[in-house]
């Protein structure tokens, strides 16, 4: 029996209040879709199956390198974080797994973390290593790099940390390790560009060799800049793909949407990685300038749709051996993280639903006869469809809230936890 942190009676009352309106809207959508030859119920089943993991660090208030303004009732440890993640799942029903980050989350025994997750109805997604910060008492510093460091001893320390993350992941029932590498240089000449990459690949090979079995995945993130401002070791999908291909079958690329220059065509990168058989996963978020980590779909929902359009197309063509893992990776600096994460999971499902609505036969026919206007309009027609009732009905049917943020506000959850969790101070950056 899952322990619900929000009284199910509150959710039921909220759904009763909004139920009639939803029923009418859902029926109208079903009628409109059926005129287009689409079965709303079949679509609902597909949409309900889409799951997005939540990062443990996402439920804390984020920050910039200038300041952090923590809200009331911030989670103080991994158990508090799990509770907030459970609320997101209870109301939104799209986020059944949590992704942990070490050492941020290694303050407790993994067995008790797993047990608490089970009580709350949560599983565990990819674990994340951290060699971009030095932890207190750490023998060697990562100031000049970690997996690509010039000193073999530092590399060995960073490899050992990643291997430790894998065993923590095993204890949690996770099946993937994600590595985001901050290594790079701030000055031309500071680092040998080719050799740094070779050292990185060699280190990742050692980590892949430590994966427990064939089902495990090693997901490599790339990022165009920051914290290194002259050159980053794994700066783009090209370097990431080279690394994944050099390392082995279980190593794949992870596309964090925020890790690209503003005008980059991300859906094209997605198509290329699928073609190479190396698309392992996503960190969903949105951005206007750089790695802004804004809520998924909040700046450019059309781009999110185009990314999902590639995924649905690849799935329908049977173009991959397994679907990429989806996770949110955002920094909530000015919103309640629980609200942002619920809205972002909804944005992912919305983009997925819209992508499922694309008339692919018509699109292929337009492409074949170079009917550019109608090809573009075929995509836009799917994108313009308001699937809000479908997303709400999918939640309602399995006990979630028709309007997750509305129900959350009525529940007073934040106020309740603020009364027992210590108020966090504003110092420090991310969780
Ligand atoms: C840094 C970053 C990256 C990781 C996360 C832990 O850019 O946001 O995306 O996934 O830190
Ligand atoms: Mn990321
Ligand atoms: Mn990032």
From TrEMBL:
InterPro entries (alphabetical): L-rhamnose_isomerase, L_rhamnose_iso, Xyl_isomerase-like_sf, Xyl_isomerase-like_TIM-brl
Domain Xylose isomerase-like TIM barrel as annotated: residue spans: 96-292
GO MF term (any one): isomerase activity
Keywords: Isomerase, Manganese, Metal-binding
PANTHER family per the UniProt record, alphabetical: L-RHAMNOSE ISOMERASE
Protein name: L-rhamnose catabolism isomerase
Source species of the chain: Bosea minatitlanensis
